[in-house]
Amino acid sequence: MVVVWRNVIMFGYLHLAAVYGMYLALTSAKLLTSAWAWLMYVLSGLGITAGAHRLWSHRTYKANFPLRVILAAFNTLAFQNSIYDWARDHRVHHKYSETDADPHDARRGFFFAHIGWLLCRKKVEVIEKGKGLDLSDLENDPVVAFQKKYYIILMPITCFLIPTIVPVYFWNESWTNAWFVATLCRYTFTLNMTWLVNSAAHIWGNKPYDKTINPSENISVALGALGEGWHNYHHVFPWDYKAAELGNYKLNFTTAFVDFFARIGWAWDLKTVPKQVVMRRY
């Protein structure tokens, strides 16, 4: 295993900065700054859950051009690599889950599945299997292609500059509070909520649909990851746009988001699994 020390240093700094940001949020930051940070967390989370995950990785629904642009902007705010790279790795994860080709193989323990996989170079098996996937749908999407091409420019502006500048210029927040609370604490928190799907939801929870696989139903992860914690169901029925067996919005804000845009005609062809199929599998 080859350690990528640049990533070790970067993530180490981010987590220390996030702790300091939480301290500032409780002591000196304005309430508006904390609210702004929370809004950025939700928007960036939707860029991962409704965007990179349910739309582009699994094609569980279709979205028009304006909605795809909105989701791409939210995804850039999240800074978890481009949509193209995120979707490629996630498709590899599903196809080769808990094997040597799984980018965040949970068999290697919580730490590796959570963050360790980002602190070392990818295994050869992961890279080779990724090259073997059909990614033509991503390559032919102009929104995905544009974000990928200009990601190195768009990401710093969207993820770091705008979240920091807005509190300073709109409600006279200090640069220190804006940087550590609204930007670094928010960004690190969002990262960890996403990572918990790979770690906690692959280790702890019940498995009502397939007891032979690691992915589990984890309510805590569903709460923090905007509805992505119903993971045993998701790995059995990955084409369901809800990523859950639940028909309501309980602990699944992402489904409410997609349903809203479906009602106004911006999203359609929402794929679901018939209840009798779910119950038969259960």
Automatic annotation (TrEMBL):
It comes from the Eukaryota. Its cofactor is Fe(2+). It is a multi-pass membrane protein. The keyword Transmembrane applies. One of its GO terms (molecular function) is oxidoreductase activity, acting on paired donors, with oxidation of a pair of donors resulting in the reduction of molecular oxygen to two molecules of water. Residues 37-238 form the Fatty acid desaturase domain. GO terms for biological process: fatty acid biosynthetic process. InterPro entries: Acyl-CoA_DS, FA_desaturase_dom. The keyword Membrane applies. The chain crosses the membrane at residues 7-26, 38-56, 150-171, 177-197. It holds the Pfam family FA_desaturase. GO terms for cellular component: membrane. Belongs to the fatty acid desaturase type 1 family. The histidine box domains are involved in binding the catalytic metal ions. This is Fatty acid desaturase domain-containing protein.
